[in-house]
Amino acid sequence: AQARPFYRDECTTFRFQLLKLYELDAARMLARRIPELYPLIPLMKGGVALAEEANRALLKSELPRSKNADLLAVLRVFLGLRDTGKAAKVRKEQDAHMNVMAESPVYQEILNQGRAEGEAKGRVEGRAQGRAEGLRKAIALGLEIRFGSEAKKLLPLLGRCLDLTELEQAAEAVKTVPSIEDFRRFLPVTS
User: Fold this and answer.
1) CA distances, 77 to each of 37, 88, 107 (Å)
2) Do residues 66 and 104 lie in contact, with contact meaning Cβ atoms separated by under 8 Å?
3) What does pTM read for this prediction?
4) Which residues pair with 6 in a beta bridge?
């Protein structure tokens, strides 16, 4: 209701025709034989019923394989929004002809971005785990130097401490606490 058929800023004005896909007839769109529009068919009036036909038409199209893979992937996504059962059926049909997702450049870009984010997160988490392990070893050594073999009783509690802030506080405390009992308050409480 709030959409307008124009865009205007300080130096540009665009006028365009606003199309409401849900009002367009899917059968008429399919009959026009414009494969680039087939992914939109599930969103159109009567489109869920024609989605499998649009899928088959795309699978047979003469478009470049990578472009076709993108169109098939989008068709499956839009159909999944309307009917997950039919989307699963379309996926099986697509997989029988080609690995649509693996061949889709758009999907590959999304996958690579996800991998890069995962690897970056893994590096950060790995550094944090390494730092925590280093702090635990330093604390254990400091306790042993200060309090002798009695400090070994605290090693299981120290091993349960995963929070870097707690470990950093414990590392500072090991330098100044007067007794091993006073140091215990810097370790996680066990039940």
Assistant:
1) 14, 10, 12
2) yes
3) 0.51
4) 15
